[in-house]
Amino acid sequence: MLEVRRLTKRFGHVVAVEDFTLAVPEGEVLALLGPSGCGKTTVLRIVAGLERPDAGRVILAGRDATDWPPEKRGVGLVFQSYALFPHLSVGANVAYGLRFRRGDRKGRVRELLALVGLARYERRKPHQLSAGQQQRVALARALAPEPRVLLLDEPLSALDAALRKDLRAELRALLGKLGMTALYVTHDQEEALALADRVAVMREGRLEQVAPPEELYSRPKTPFVASFLGRANLWPGRVVSVDGDRAFVEVAGERIPAERGECREGDEVFLFFRPEWVEVGEGLFTAEVESAEYLGDRWELRARFCDLPLVLITGQDPRSSGTLPFAIPTARTIHQQ
Amino acid sequence: MRSEQPNAPLWGQRRRGWRAGGAWALLPLAFLGLALFLPLWEVLRLGLQADGLWTAAPLRSVLGDPYIRRLLLFTVEQALLSTGLSLVLGFPLGWLLTRYRFPGHDALRAMTLVPFVLPPITVALGFVLFFGHAGYLNRFLQAAFGLAEPPIRVLYTLWGIVLAHAFYNAPVVARFVNVAWEAQDPTHVEAARVLGAGRLKAFFTVTLPALVPGALSACALVFLLCTLSFAIPLSLGGARYATIEVGVYNLARVDVDLARAAALALVVLAVSLALTCLYVRGGGLLRPVSSREREQPTVPLLDRKRPARLLWLVYLLPAALVFLGPIGAVIADSFLRPAPGGSSPTLHWYRIALSADTTPFLGTSPLGSILTSLGVALAAAGGALILGLAISAAVRRLRSRVLETLLMAPLGVSSVVLGLALLLAFRRPPLSFLPPGPWPLVVAHILIVYPFVVRAVGPLWESLDPRLVEAARTLGASRRLAFLTVELPLLRSGLLVAGARAFALSLGEMTATAMLARPGLNTIPLAIYQFLSSRRFGAASAMATVLMVTTALVAWAWERTGRGLLGRREKAFLASDSHRGGAEIAEPVERVASGFMPDDKAVRGLKAVADRLRRYREPIHSTTDVLRVSAVRKHRRNHA
Amino acid sequence: MKKLTLLCLVLLALPAWGTELVVYTYDSFVAWGPALAIKDAFEKAHPGVTLVWIAPGDSSEMLARVVAELELGLPTADVFVGLADVEVPRALARNVFRPLEPERLAHLADVPADLRIGGDAFVVPYDHGYITLIYDARALPDELVPRTLDDLLRPELKGKIVLQDPRTSSPGLSFLLWTIAHYGEDWPAFWEKLLPNALTVTRGWTESFDMLEAGEAPLGVSYSTDEAYAQIVYGELVYRVLTPDGEGFHQVEYMGVVRTTPNAELAHALLDLILSPEIQELIPTSQWMFPANATARVPEAFAAYAVIPEHPVSLDLDTVAANLSAWIRTWQEILVAR
Questions:
Q1: Which residues of B touch C77 (CB under 8 A)?
Q2: Is the bond leading into B430 cis (omega within 30 degrees of zero)?
Q3: Does B633 touch chain A (CB under 8 A)?
Q4: Which domains does chain A have, with CATH numbers?
């Protein structure tokens, strides 16, 4: 449904997007995730037609839309700041995109407001609504003209944490119900993992990895993806031997088994494992605990193993001893770049 | 591979901006080319050519003329004296408004705006009626003290002009000082006090130095305004005292020596351009920097424990006399001056001022003058709005300093020069093709008032969220439709305010009007001047009162409309402040509209308004809060 | 908005339909003089024609206006009434008037030859009088009344004298020429002392006389007929005429047809009407001047109180034409120098 091919966009000397290729099949919600300034909003604006790429194409429903003005693209856009028209009522805001098409506009407005749960607010002005309500109006407005693709630019980031979680669930349900093709830009990994069918991670204008959330979390392809999503232990090492789908990585003089992935013998790799994969309390290795943070249901420990930093999670009070035995039953390799 | 090739920037952001911006710039450039640059070229040609050859001879001859040199000298002299007196009269007022609380404080503050809506000719009339030898003040003093001779003799002297200029400009100084002072962070003084400085020492070492930029800026502006003053020296100077502006008028319209008029006009043009550049450039540097977290503390003026504060009366009473006397005299005179039969009070003068019969002393009927004035003002306001909007749009997109300077050029052209230029240009094609009518006046007034529209609309537009347009675009609106359905409605209140201001300015304009006057074409200010100079004071007063009331009505209407529009759109915005809201909004707009006032606070006010329009997160409960927006935000964030 | 403007303009233009004869004159000719009587008589004689007097300033100012309008190609007057003899060279140099057709002016024969100039080629006289000083007998003590021009320089008179600007007003110009005739080469020295003594220099005679009437100043330049005015209007001699050194400057006032007029025939008819005894007899007690038509009867009170100076002063018009701009420039420099 939506495809961008080898997009490049520079602002002056700053490269915002470089050689960026991505496809979103019909009905999929794809989250574009990355730290702020990584170019994800630029990709979104290029898709919407608000920026023109220096190179690359935008394909919408199989047709090259690179040169189309925004009003001809049939995309819906929800802004971070909602950008509701302050001089128009809620109803008129939603109807704005309908003034260019025929049919029962009033009915459509009501339908959409009902969809976002704001049926009674049609005559209000935007400033009379709460932030969450404004967000829903922005969504209804973008959906009204039945866009081919819905673009969402950090739509929840201006809300407070509790509201954000509620709306996240609502949004997920709504997008699923409508079967919308959507591109969802966010810098919040939790949001991306919770909402999207697939997540694309961007870094400095380039695409790092696209994958379903579970795969992205457990099998990151790059150290950046590994550390950007959740907590990660990354130890530099070398593959000393390979045995079927297992590889042995030498780290600080120890040979540690890991899932082989794509590595070969002699490769310089990172040994990657999540803190929660570690078994604490028994094992061959000994960690020197440096500090512990109590997080209610668990402790998070900062420790060292042979001078390598290590993050551990444990359910017991670890402060009784300065050293702690542990094992790494599950680990994967990631190529050093 | 196709995607390897870089895309030609067909409608890329930058190129698109240039194309659309260029379209917007086209109308103003065409208008200015025909109505300003071509006419100025005529002046240049006439003033620098002899027998078809370029030469500096006319210029040298004009500058070598001892009379004209005297005019130049007098112009500078009176401008310096006026600036000094304005500072002396205005500084205490600024002080009073900043530091003290007293009943009528807000009214007094609002009254410092009055000179901006008061046409100069009414001030001149007021001065003749109030300070004249047979004026109200002298008659009162003579009656009170049994004097045979009128004790106050300022009229027809240099001091009459200086005093009238001070009347006009002391409020300007007061405003600047007030703005600069209120922008000061009170903790600076507190720090000085804690470090051991006494009250006086703290004032002289901390407060005063921080006010210097504001005061200097005010002085530069007042000097500029006084140098280019016309109606006041024309009416109060008698034959003896004339400024260069009056000099150009006399050469062009009394001596009918157009070549010399053009040569002197070039001198005036150079002076006005230089002074305006100096003010605009310097004004930017001198603008007070606001960094305060708290409001300036105020103390009550009337305090039993501090009778010394009553010394302010020593300032306030004479000031009230200077400021209220002339205006009061005009209004009083229009009713009290005995009619020919001797009856007083009388409406006789209003019957004359509103009569539809042709009066030989005007060349038209007074009612005709009023209708012409209204028609011209309406056309000028409409034209200025269109032009101002187009220029704001062009400047906003193209971001070219050269273009901006070019498009705002009329700010630096004195009205007399503008009048002369149009007078010359309307003699020949293409402007002579226009059908007969008040076109020269309309064109001149548009040129004089549109910069104020730009200065009122520009910042407002600048502060609109660009995403609103983008949202409209993604919803299917073309660029043009997005402008019509989103930007224009959001700019409407600003446009109305600017339009009303333009209307009022045009109503009071007399300088270019006097240059362009032609048989059968008279405006209210010209009629007042003609009644005044033929000493038909009653008719002049009635006419001036009509003008003041019309202007006040317009001012009131724009305040109401501005408030109404905002109120309808943004109820929360003004909800708890419906009474003062409009005035306070109109005020910064007014100040920006006045073109030269410190736009720091005004722009901040406008931005805050627009901010509210586009973000409406925290409702502002009082428009004075506009100034405390950041503080409010912080406060709320802490409580959230 | 535009439509409303157009409507206003149309409304303003409406009265312009039908034939109009526009006459420029100085303000006092309308405020005091026979202008309205002339309008009535003329419109009665020429049905369908409207006579419009336009008089927002003194004579030189109005002349400047015609000159400006001619040079700038603006519509202007058909007839100009009220040109002082000393201004005639200036007007002729600026090519303001069209040649007259004396055969259309039947009453011109009754005007004495010594008032007529230039063979009646461009302008004809309609009245004459004497520029003198006048003072308010109620406000100026006897010992201060000047007997000579030099007396005007007495410091006691400082701020009590009202003068007119010779650049804009014909009495002002006449007074300047009087002092030039009186003092010869030394006139600038006289003015250097006179100007600081003056209260103000007004643009026109109307303002200065009004200041006298309003009591703002007791002494000024005006006409020798003002005693007659005081006697007839106030019933007592509140204004006294001064003929310092027995002098007064003789002033003849002229009228002519502006060269661009499309209504030359009506214009001549108007000039002839003004020269007719019917109008000429109104001149003494409205315009407070001597009529130009010798057959016009003058009221006895006027004849009794109108002062005729012992030594009327005048200047040769060719000398005036040759020197006027230099004199004015010198005067101007004295005015602004301090």
A1: 519
A2: yes
A3: no
A4: 2-226 (3.40.50.300), 231-335 (2.40.50.140)
